[in-house]
């Protein structure tokens, strides 16, 4: 099976598992993610952290984002500009959120655009080597590549539930690996010393 087909199959399978988590359990798991992440993610005062506002059955990381803000982080969330591009707009306490694409909400276009130093990355599938499968649009891969072209190397922390882990994600040399994964079980750093395995 070709890599793209296998990725699509894994994405469908793992998102179905995520969808099947009862809502109350999803809330509990999201709070566990916040507890683990608040202590495991180290940041400097004023560090820019990109999070996301949950859609569908994603983990709700708003509690984690609040805890990181309380520790001095500047928060931002993605905004889709077109079929190729997302930018990260500052999320200020009390600011009005406007409707975006794919059922998302976020800060208005007037909000400042920030370059994240720490990125909390949504995903559909991950493996123990830090490979991830997104939702198929490639937005995060392109956004991370743009940051790399600016000479920036944000810490990439995947956000998922344990049920989204698989033994192995098909990967290609251009795929960008996560530095860590954060689930309801805790925070796990990946060994990225072997770039392509």
UniProtKB/TrEMBL annotation:
GO terms for molecular function: 5-formyltetrahydrofolate cyclo-ligase activity; ATP binding; metal ion binding. ATP binds at residues 7-11, 132-140. It comes from the Bacteria. It catalyses: (6S)-5-formyl-5,6,7,8-tetrahydrofolate + ATP = (6R)-5,10-methenyltetrahydrofolate + ADP + phosphate. Its EC number is 6.3.3.2. Substrate binds at residues 53, 58. GO terms for biological process: folic acid-containing compound biosynthetic process; tetrahydrofolate interconversion. Keywords: ATP-binding, Ligase, Magnesium, Metal-binding, Nucleotide-binding. This is 5-formyltetrahydrofolate cyclo-ligase.
């Amino acid at each position: 099976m070709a890599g793209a087909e296998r990725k699509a199959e894994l994405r469908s399978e793992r998102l179905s598992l995520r969808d099947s988590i009862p809502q109350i359990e999803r809330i509990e798991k999201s709070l566990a993610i916040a507890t683990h992440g608040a202590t495991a993610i180290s940041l400097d005062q004023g560090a820019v952290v990109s999070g996301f506002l949950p859609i569908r059955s994603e983990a709700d990381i708003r509690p984690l984002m609040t805890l990181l803000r309380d520790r001095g982080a500047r928060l931002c969330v993605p905004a889709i500009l077109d079929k190729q591009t997302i930018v990260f707009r500052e999320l200020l306490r009390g600011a009005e959120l406007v409707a975006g694409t794919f059922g998302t909400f976020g800060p208005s276009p007037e909000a400042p655009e920030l370059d994240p130093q720490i990125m909390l990355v949504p995903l559909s599938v991950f493996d123990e080597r830090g490979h991830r499968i997104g939702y198929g649009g490639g937005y995060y891969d392109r956004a991370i590549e743009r940051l790399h072209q600016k000479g920036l190397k944000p810490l990439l922390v995947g956000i998922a539930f344990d049920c989204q882990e698989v033994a192995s994600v098909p990967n290609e040399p251009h795929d960008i690996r996560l530095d860590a994964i954060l689930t309801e079980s805790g925070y796990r750093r990946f060994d990225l010393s072997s770039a392509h395995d």
